[in-house]
Design goal:
By secondary structure, the protein is α/β, with parallel strands linked by helices. It is built from 15 helices and 17 strands. A hairpin with a 4-residue loop joins strand 10 and strand 11.
């Protein structure tokens, strides 16, 4: 008897019961066979695939926003989500509704189960979500898709898509258990998204990573468009965001207002612009008015996001040292705090010491909590590590994330004007905070 998935809670439980992508042998065969049984929906529209360590989601969503501003019906697929699974799939600028999510999964799920029985292997939760997104973009239908790689590149489910335009954001150390413990091995995995004869837009990289990316591109006879060689970006802080000057191979765009803070987001915006220019493939520059609309109205939850005023509360999903360094620089460049309290929760496979070192110059007091995840470092263990790095004087422990946020806000209130709260360390921590403040 066919099992019907009743609602979002039922679906969330179904995904949770499936193996995580790093707990199964790396292969694209499972996803390819399921998609083949579904009629290869991923072949029905062009796509831009975004890989990298940090900045993938922002770049993917910026690609989507730019495409829509130019009149293209676009789907976007990103991960992780902050509050609801439905955040991962967007159709023409709107998160998929719960009703449509349930209906769409019930359409493909019987075929997925049939193929799993035939193959003798189950899809991971991420693989199932990827199949759903690719199928729904074809059913909608979308005229293009912006797709974010989950982990790595070569063996990630999204890499079944034959994307003729890809983007590679900053590559750094992360997911070493699955991608290798050197920058070269990580870069090699992420460069696996580069397809034969394709175009890849690449942000500035450390020399070792860039060498691997260039070698892969040469092997694939692909064209690289490199930051500070083929495209350039400069930024000036402005009220509510920043003003960008972006020079691409096709045009010099001036005074573009982007409603995001941080120089890293300026680079992500430029990367997205170059990628969309090449997807359109008409040798014409983008429409400045369309770019302006896309950038002015753009929002990216959980990335240097202010979710409360008086006191100012900022949330960010920074979960590795590079992300934390970028976060710290973004706050230093665009915000002024007389006193900053940080609520920190980290997962057990992350470089927590590196995260703390990166944030320490901007943080005055710490509240250490337990991230809402089975993989969280317990608050007491994380606090002991932070104390060993910074001393115990400025550290408090509150394992409950809601209580930790409440305590941080009280401390900021008591510290007076100009005080703020930063909530970070993982997507689950940022998600819990966003649910509290934004619902």
């Amino acid at each position: 008897m066919r099992r019907v998935l009743k609602d979002l809670a039922d679906i969330t439980a179904t995904f949770a019961q499936r193996a995580a992508e790093h707990r199964i042998n790396p292969s694209l065969d499972r996803v390819r066979q399921v998609l083949d049984a579904l009629g290869d929906p991923q072949e029905m529209y062009p796509a831009i695939v975004v890989a990298g360590t940090n900045g993938k989601s922002s770049t993917t969503r910026l690609v989507d926003a730019l495409a829509r501003a130019h009149g293209i019906r676009s789907g976007a697929y990103t991960s992780p989500h902050l509050v609801s699974l439905t955040e991962r799939i967007s159709l023409d600028g709107e998160h998929i509704s719960e009703q449509r999510f349930v209906s769409a999964l019930n359409e493909v799920y019987p075929i997925v189960l049939m193929m799993e029985e035939r193959i003798g292997e189950k899809l991971t939760g991420f693989e199932l979500m990827t199949v759903l997104a690719l199928s729904e973009f074809a059913a909608a239908p979308m005229h293009m898709a912006a797709l974010e790689i989950g982990i790595g590149g070569t063996w990630d489910a999204v890499n079944v898509v034959d994307a003729q335009v890809t983007a590679i954001t900053t590559i750094d150390m992360d997911h070493q258990k699955w991608l290798g413990d050197t920058i070269e091995s990580i870069a090699g995995n992420k460069a696996g998204v580069i397809k034969p004869g394709a175009i890849s837009v690449v942000q500035n990289q450390v020399a070792a990573a860039l060498e691997v990316v260039e070698l892969t591109a040469n092997q694939m006879q692909a064209k690289l468009l490199l930051q500070d060689r083929d495209f350039f970006v400069s930024t000036t802080t402005a009220v509510g965001g920043q003003l960008l000057n972006i020079q691409t191979p096709r045009e010099n765009y001036q005074d573009l207002f982007l409603s995001l803070h941080g120089a890293h987001q300026a680079v992500n915006a430029a990367t997205a612009m170059v990628a969309v220019e090449n997807l359109l493939d008409d040798d014409e520059p983008l429409d400045p008015a369309a770019i302006g609309h896309a950038f002015e109205t753009f929002q990216m939850p959980g990335r240097l996001e202010v979710v409360h005023r008086s006191p100012t509360v900022v949330i960010d999903i920074a979960h590795n040292p590079n992300g934390a360094q970028t976060l710290a620089q973004g706050i230093a460049d665009s915000m002024t705090f007389s006193h900053l309290t940080c609520v920190l929760g980290v997962l057990d496979d992350k470089d927590s010491a590196g995260i703390v070192d990166a944030l320490a110059p901007i943080v005055d007091e710490w509240i250490i909590t337990t991230a809402p995840s089975e993989r969280a470092i317990p608050a007491n263990e994380l606090a002991a590590e932070v104390s060993g790095l910074l001393g115990a004087a400025r550290i408090q422990v509150e394992p409950d994330i809601s209580a930790a946020i409440e305590l941080a806000q009280e401390m900021a209130d008591q510290s007076g004007a100009g005080s703020g709260v930063l909530i970070t360390g993982s997507a689950t921590v940022a998600g819990a905070a966003r649910a509290r403040y934004r619902g």
